[in-house]
Structure formats: C-alpha cells, structure tokens
Amino acid sequence: MPSCCCIKNKPVRSANSSWGAEPPRSPRGEPRPAGTAAMDIEKVNSMDFGEFVDVFGNVIERCPLIAAAVWSQRPFSGLEDLEKHFFAFIDALPPSGQEGILRCHPDLAGRELLRGALTAESLREQSGAGLTSLGAAERLRLAELNAQYRARFGFPFVLAARLRGREAVPRELARRLQCPPAQELRAALAEVKKIGRLRLADLLAGHPAPR
Fold first, then answer.
1. 27 vs 186: CA distance, rounded Å
2. Packing angle between helix 136-153 and helix 181-203, nearest 10 degrees?
3. Contact 117, 24 (CB under 8 A)
4. Residue among 105, 166, 199, 207 flagged as catalytic
C-alpha cells in the first residue's frame, strides 16, 4: 500500500471538466464539481476504471490512487458504502502515509490560491468560506498561523472550510496549534473525511451534502 498517493504538480479536475465554464448546480444551489452531472449509484457501479478515477480522483485531495483502489471494491450499495471504502483506505495507512495525504492539501488562503494552482474543488470550498476575499491583515495573520502549524506538525492545516466561516478559520487554527501531535493527526484526518463526504455527496444525485 503506498505511503503517499498525492499528485502535486497540477490541479486535478473531474472528468470532462472545462476551466472557466459555469459548473452545474447541486440541489441546494451550490456548484457541483465542474463538468459533472448528478449520478446515482447504479451509474457509479457501471463506470470503468478510467471514468471512475476521473470522476472520484479528487474526493480525497490530489489522491487519485485512493479512487483507483476503491474502484476495485465495486459494487457499492449506496453513498455510505462508497464513503466507507474511501475512508477505510485512509484508516489502513501507516501514520507516514496518513501524513502524506495531509500534505496533498493546500494551505487555506495560501500560496496556491494566490498562484491560481488550487484544484477546482478546493477553490470552490475556500471561496465559499470567504477565504478568497480576505483583507491584507487577515491574509498575513493566516499565513503566520499556517507557517507555525506546518513547522509544528510537518503538514498543512486541514479544515472542511465549507462548514466554517472565515472568522472561524484562524480561531480553529490557533486552537489546534496547541494539540499534541498524535491528537492533531487524528483531528486533521477527520477533516479530510468531512471534505471527502461533502465532495461525494455533491457527485451523487439525491444526496445533498450537509451544511
């Protein structure tokens, strides 16, 4: 089993996506992943390997190898079953591999945002949390906290930004900076799973992601 499965050189996009195109909307009015339409579990189970990895390759940020492993577990009975296989892969990794997954994530309001190098999903999530419209002082404060966090734990701060407002992000970052490393690894992986759950729910019809 690989110890790290992320792809950092370029943004990962969903199948048939088109940069700059207005993405379709989910049942609650938020954009779905670019170029994808709602699908049901029967459609998921009928996908060949390449299509499945194209569509689900960024459920776990920049980790298409996880989607590749999950494809072999078909058929899935529903969204929860699909989630279970994604998360079981993460849980089965050694700590070094789990940290590798965390290192695939960008800093919140960090350099990748400024360079336009975020994945479509991350950009949508950070934008929805108000992190693309921070003032100079807010950006500086978050950059300082992100640097302190990386120095302490060796991986970036991960948070399901869609479930938080912009004011909550630096507060949560400062709080988690004080956590013991083993506890923080568990907390960060829990956030990875929240993000993955939201992204999966966006992809499957009839399963709007919780707020």
1. 32
2. 120
3. no
4. 105
CB neighbours of residue 124 within 10 Å = 22
From the list 193, 197, 3, 7, the residue with the least C-alpha distance to 99 is 3
Looking at residue 5, its pLDDT comes to 61
Full-model pTM: 0.84
CA pair distance 8, 63, nearest whole angstrom = 9
Give the domain CATH number at 164: 1.10.3330.10
Please check whether residue 191 lies inside any domain of the structure: yes
Residue 54 lies in a domain: yes
144-173 residue pLDDT tens: 999 999 999 999 999 999 999 899 999 999
- Cα–Cα distance for residue pair 165/163, rounded to 1 Å: 7
Active site residue 85: no
Number of structural domains in the chain: 1
Domain span including residue 50: 41-203
pLDDT in the model for residue 165: 85
User: Considering the domain boundaries, does residue 85 fall inside one?
Assistant: yes
